Amino acid sequence: MMLKLDQSHLDQIRQHGARDYPSECCGILLGRADAKDKEVREVVPLKNLRHDSARAQALLPLDDPGRETERNRFLIDPMEQLRVEKDARARSLDVVGYYHSHPDHPARPSNYDREHAWPWYSYVIVSVQKGEPKDLTSWVLTDGRERFDPEQVDALNL
Amino acid sequence: MAVKVIIPSPLQQFTNSEETVDLEASTVGEALSQLAARYEGLRARLFTEAGKLRPFVNVYLNEEDVRFLEKDATPLHKDDVLAIVPTIAGGF
């Protein structure tokens, strides 16, 4: 599989990462998928629900809320996700993946990322170092959930 | 009651690529059990071995999380839309 995006989509993801630094940012990738590739048509930035710690904790409890915050955790509000997904389907688009940032941390999925991921979706990670967006990578969880496989990111200059 | 269930992309491989499934059920629990009975591959993705809904699976009835309604006992009405919404989370 390959993830195809426009350069403007990559810029949007990087800029969101820089804007929300030192917190993690997150968002949804809408597009179309076939057996071979995914093609992104829209990037939808969303709020990291970890900023609303009471609500986030009710939805997905953290083991150590003292150490785990919006700076090293993200959670998408399922209500917003559903709203974006319904709106996308009405326009014949699918949710093909999600993105989030790793502030001052490499663009590699962590164990926590893997434990919370779903197969099939693309998980784009942008590393933001001292406020500057750097590496951007994409990953797909294997069906058996053993690991994330790297996914080729193909930027089209449109 | 005739209701519709929205299936997210990662689970469509278990529903013969169907994005929505039409069911007859009177409660949320009944609808989910029927779904698991109809698509065996879906059962393990939705439920634990003890038969409880997995923690990373959210179920919305129209615009509301069924956990904050009456959970499995939440009654369904004609043309209700149930949505399975995967929890999306991560970090480092």
What's the helix and strand layout?
The complex is a heterodimer of chains A (158) and B (92).
Chain A: E1 2-6, H1 7-20, E2 26-33, E3 37-46, H2 53-59, E4 73-75, H3 78-90, E5 94-103, H4 111-116, E6 122-129, E7 132-141, E8 148-156
Chain B: E1 2-6, E2 20-24, H1 28-38, H2 40-46, E3 57-61, E4 64-65, E5 81-86, E6 89-91
Parallel strand pairs in B: 1-5
Antiparallel strand pairs in B: 1-2, 3-4, 3-5
Helix pairs in contact in B: 1-2
Structural commentary:
The complex is a heterodimer of chains A (158) and B (92). Chain A is α/β, with parallel strands linked by helices and 158 residues long. Chain A has one domain: Cytidine Deaminase, domain 2 (3-Layer(aba) Sandwich), CATH 3.40.140.10. Chain A is 25% helix and 40% strand. Chain A is built from 4 helices and 8 strands; from the N terminus they run E-H-E-E-H-E-H-E-H-E-E-E. Chain A has helices at 7-20, 53-59, 78-90, 111-116; strands at residues 2-6, 26-33, 37-46, 73-75, 94-103, 122-129, 132-141, 148-156. Chain A has a 7-stranded mixed barrel with strand order 1-3-2-5-6-7-8. In chain A, helix 4 links the parallel strand 5 and strand 6 (122-129). Chain A is globular. The model of chain A has no long low-confidence stretch (mean pLDDT 96). With 92 residues, chain B is α+β, with helices and mostly antiparallel strands. Chain B has one domain (2-86): Ubiquitin-like (UB roll) (Roll). In chain B, 20% of the residues lie in helices and 28% in strands. Chain B contains 2 helices and 6 strands; from the N terminus they run ββααββββ. In chain B, strands 2-1-5-3-4 form a 5-stranded mixed sheet, with helices on one face. The termini of chain B are far apart. The mean pLDDT of chain B is 95. Chains A and B meet through strand 4, helix 3, strand 5 and helix 4 of A and strand 5 and strand 6 of B.
